[in-house]
Amino acid sequence: MVTVRKVDPGLMHKGSRGPRELSPAAREREQQGRQFKRLIALLKGPEQVFEVRLDPNEKPITIRQRLLRVASDANVEIAVRKHGGGFLVGLLTPERRTNRGRKAAAATDAARAPKG
After folding, report:
1. Looking at per-residue confidence, does 76 or 10 come out higher?
2. Residue 21: inside a domain, yes or no?
3. H helices of the chain, where?
4. Are 41 and 89 contacting, i.e. CB atoms less than 8 angstroms apart?
5. Which domain holds residue 63?
């Protein structure tokens, strides 16, 4: 059975509360995002490379994805490489581009050419 009771009309105005306070982890992520934005803004040419060191409690894949997301939002292509206990970050150049397991174009073209 459903219970019905009269309540304060102020309960209907949920939007009147102030914004929620961020958790410490969310504040840290926000700060890290701002730090990554500054790093990406400093990349002016291929001769500039930065090292990002990780804390022991940070997951490398998470930090790498955050770096790539911030760069994507800024319309900047970056290369991220493992280095020691962290990453090296620089602008993406043809030499820094990886083929991630794909065969080189020349080998692919030779395989497609008709034999005979």
Report:
1. 76
2. no
3. 24-42, 60-73, 105-112
4. no
5. 28-99
Please indicate, yes or no, if residue 1 is contained in any of the structural domains.
Answer: no
Helix 24-42, helix 60-73: angle, nearest 10: 60
What predicted TM-score, i.e. pTM, was given to this entire model?
A: 0.69
pLDDT of residue 2: 74
Token pair belonging to 35:
């730090």
Res 28: pLDDT: 92
**Is residue 34, in this structure, part of any structural domain at all?**
yes
Euclidean distance between CA atoms 67 and 34, whole angstroms:
11
User: Residue 16 and residue 56: Cα distance in Å, rounded?
Assistant: 41
CA distance 90 to 114: 41
List, for residues 32-53, the tens digit of each pLDDT value.
Answer: 999 999 999 999 999 999 999 9
